[in-house]
Amino acid sequence: GVSMRTAIQPSVDEAVYVTSKLGSSLHSLEIGNEINFFANNAVGTPTMQWESFQTAIAAASPTTPIAGPAAAGAIPTFTAPFAAAEGSKIVLLTQHYYKGAASSNPTIASMLVPDTSVGPQSQELAAAVQANQIAGGYRWGEMNSYSGHGAAGVSDVFASALWSLDFMLTTAQYGA
Fold first, then answer.
1. Which residue, 1, 82, 5, 6, is CA-closest to 38?
2. Following DSSP, what letter does each residue of 5-55 receive, concatenated?
3. Which of 49, 63, 99, 117 lies 20 to 30 Å from 22, alpha-carbon distance?
C-alpha cells in the first residue's frame, strides 16, 4: 500500500507552489472534500487525515492559509467539533449544502419551497466561527439544488438560478 507520507507529499508540493506564485492573493487552500464521509476520520482522533495534511503543509509552507473542513451535512456532529478542535489552524470554515438528492425525483415546485433548514444551519456555522475565532468566517464551498450532478429539467433551468439567489441571500443574512 501507499504510505500516508507518500500520499501527502503531492499536496504539500502543491501548497508550496501555489503559495509561492499567489502570495498574498491566495485566500486559502481547502484540505479534503467531504472528509466526514471517510472512514477513521473522526474529529480529534489520531487517524484524522486532515490533521496529517495540515501539519505537513504548515511545516513546509508556514504562510499557506488553510480552510476547512469541506464537510457535507453533519454540522453538529462533524463541522462544529472540527471548528473547536482545529479552528486555530484555519482562516475559513467551509461547508457543503444540497437541498436534496437528484435521485429523489425533484420538481421545480419542490425546489422553490423555502428550505427551513438553511437558516439554522447558517446559525450553527456562524456560532462555530464566533466561538472558535475563525477570522475569515464561513462560506458554503459547494452547494447545489440537488446532488448527483443536479436534476435534469430542474437544476438546469431559470428556477434554479432563483433558488441559488435565495440560498445565497438567506445565508448572507447569517454572515456567510
1. 82
2. HHHHHHHHHHHHHHHHHHGGG---EE--SSGGGSTT--TTSTT-HHHHHHH
3. 49
| Of 50, 47, 71, residue with least CA distance to 124 | 71
Residues 6+ apart with CB under 8 A from 152: none
d(CA 52, CA 46): 9
Residues 99, 145 contacting (CB under 8 angstroms): yes
pLDDT over 70 at 73, yes or no: yes
Question: Which residues, in sequence order, are bridge partners of residue 138?
Answer: 93
Quote the pLDDT of residue 101.
85
pTM of the model: 0.87
Determine the residue type at 99. Answer: K
Residue positions counted in the chain: 176
> Chain centroid to CA 38: how far?
14
Cell 432563483: give the residue: 162
d(CA 125, CA 159): 27
